[in-house]
Amino acid sequence: MTRVTFTKYHGCENDYLFVDCTRSPLESAPAIARALSHRHRGYGSDGIICVYPPSPSVEADFRMEMYNADGSRGKMCGNGIRGFGKMVADRGLTKKQELRVETDAGIKTLTLLSTNGVIDRVSVDMGEPILDGRQIPVAADGRVLDRALEVAGRKWTVSCVSMGNPHCVTFDADPAGLKLYEIGPGFEHHPFFPEQVNTEFVRVDSPRQLTMRVWERGSGETMACGTGACAVVVAAALTGRAERKAVVKLRGGDLDIDYRSDGRVIMTGPTVEVYTATVDVDVRGDNATIRG
Which CATH number fits domain 133-263: 3.40.50.1100, 1.10.245.10, 3.10.310.10, 3.40.50.300? Predict the structure, then answer.
């Protein structure tokens, strides 16, 4: 039996359960992620995020490990890393207002922003987007911008970007009317994406405002995706649909994205604590059952 204490945070309603692993690791994290994240049998989340000390020889304050709701390992989560910053500060694990967090997608720099002494927003330097097809990865060389791709019985025009995880962005349809549960899996498991993909369906409201819905690999449709919002602004700017600085409106809230002239992408958005709980989890092989 494994006792797990976690705190739930959400960023634009993209919610994760955060576990403090600074003193001891979380064993069987994929199985525990599946059990705790289940919307009906568990506590409900888009996954779990573990807070670890940085790896030896890495110049960072903390290390972030992310697991999607299906137990798969994620390299990066834009909404999740903002909750990460709020958690380590609120729990007294740091007194810094600027943090370096080691992720599977490299080191990210966080700036904690407060209102009346309460951290409620976090700005994250997401680094430069990856635009080379094989590095994203997709099954194509060079940049993939406004490329035709047949998915779910129709042709789509797509642009692909990695923000530490692969994204496919399309401006072909108003996201409000789409049945993502029918369309999303076709993108996620398309052979063009060797490591599967997160897909953003976008409407351009103005050069500085974009509206999107997202289908995330390993989680399905979520209320928001921070790395996805970054990918959307990069794709929109490079294809001439929007400016490099824009507000991205998601189902769970808004994110401010700045694709700077030096190539770095800065994401700023809210983070909210929901509750803390302690549960016992019975782990047997690849399966886990909540006991209390």
Answer: 3.10.310.10
